[in-house]
Amino acid sequence: AFHTFCVFSRFLMTKNAAAAATVNRTADFMLSTAVNQAKAAASGKHGVAAFSAAGGSNLRYNTGSSVQGNGFNLAVGVAKAFDGLTLGVAGEYATTDFRSHAGGISAQGENALYGGALLLDWQGKGGWHMEGAVRMGRVSSEYNGLLNTKDDAAYQGVTIGAGKSVTLSDSTAMDLYARYMFSYTAGSMAKGEGAG
Question: Using the 8-state DSSP alphabet, how is residue 168 labeled?
Answer without folding.
Answer: -
